[in-house]
């Protein structure tokens, strides 16, 4: 979220992919998974309740939600300065976009409005081949206003705070 004073987290928590999660490689996330967390799409032993973070029997798209307070040295309240760089992530499974692109304000608006990404095998049930998908502002189902209003707000804030925009493709 963004305000005139900077950016902030209103959820009070984090949402992380946890397939292959190991204490040795991601100790903060691993240790945050304790009482008060929520796991989805994971396999666990019904008797010991131990989670098998290496299993993809349900999907590769396993997730953990946990309270922000479970991360050591967290900044409370979760407020930071306006960003100097904005990164739009896109899973371009078709290789049409370069891996990293610096965007003009207008290009950032375009990519934000289109919300292009790809569904890939292992992230959703019955997806076996890459499938292009679009979601306005990367959250179409949750928008109250027309996507152009959000894009105009984005451009205004980028200009106001001298923010550079980047498109990073992960496909």
From TrEMBL:
It comes from the Eukaryota. It holds the Pfam family PEPCK_ATP. Transmembrane segments: none annotated. SUPFAM superfamilies: PEP carboxykinase-like. PANTHER family: PHOSPHOENOLPYRUVATE CARBOXYKINASE (ATP), PHOSPHOENOLPYRUVATE CARBOXYKINASE ATP. This is Phosphoenolpyruvate carboxykinase (ATP). It comes from Coccomyxa subellipsoidea. The lineage of its organism: Eukaryota, Viridiplantae, Chlorophyta, core chlorophytes, Trebouxiophyceae.
């Amino acid at each position: 979220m963004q305000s005139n004073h900077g950016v902030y987290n209103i959820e009070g928590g984090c949402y992380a992919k946890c397939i292959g999660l190991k204490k040795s490689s991601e100790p903060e996330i691993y240790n945050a998974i304790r009482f008060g967390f929520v796991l989805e799409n994971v396999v666990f032993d019904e008797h010991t309740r131990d989670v098998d973070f290496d299993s993809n029997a349900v999907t590769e798209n396993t997730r953990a939600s946990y309270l922000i307070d479970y991360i050591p040295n967290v900044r409370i309240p979760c407020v930071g300065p306006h960003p100097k760089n904005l990164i739009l992530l896109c899973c371009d499974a078709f290789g049409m976009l370069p891996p990293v692109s610096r965007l003009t304000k207008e290009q950032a608006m375009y990519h934000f409005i289109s919300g292009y990404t790809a569904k890939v095998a292992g992230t959703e049930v019955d997806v076996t081949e890459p499938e292009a998908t679009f979601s306005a502002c990367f959250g179409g189902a949750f928008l109250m206003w027309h996507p152009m209003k959000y894009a105009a707000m984005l451009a205004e804030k980028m200009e106001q705070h001298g923010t550079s925009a980047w498109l990073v493709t992960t496909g």
